[in-house]
Specification:
With 98 residues, this protein is α+β, with helices and mostly antiparallel strands. The protein has one domain: Nuclear Transport Factor 2, Chain: A (Roll). It is 24% helix and 39% strand. Strands 1-5-4-3-2 form a five-stranded mixed β-sheet.
Length: 98
């Protein structure tokens, strides 16, 4: 089954993220095309919604961390709402390589 991804984000939050971390949400959305991307549930920040952390390589070749939610739209589509994104730390780079 092929799943279609739609992306959503708050434009204000996207601008803040770009200024703070030099990562656009457009670029962050491309990590979901990385076949080796790792996604884990984030229970510490999932009080009002289920948040996830994904580590993957963007289309620009940068290893990024993306904080996001998943919302199932139907059998074939999911909306991913990006909350924040940044470049991976040395420890995260090591975890991706394992």
């Amino acid at each position: 089954m092929i799943l279609n991804y739609n992306f959503d984000w708050d434009p204000r939050k996207a601008n803040e993220n770009r200024e703070k971390h030099a990562v656009t949400f457009d670029e962050a959305s491309t990590v979901f095309r990385d076949s080796k991307a790792l996604s884990i549930f984030d229970p510490d920040h999932s009080i009002t919604e289920e948040r996830w952390i994904t580590l993957g390589i963007s289309e620009k070749g940068r290893l990024l961390i993306v904080i996001h939610t998943f919302q199932k739209e139907n059998e074939n589509a999911v909306t991913i709402r990006i909350i924040s994104s940044r470049k991976a730390t040395k420890q995260e780079i090591k975890a991706y390589g394992e």
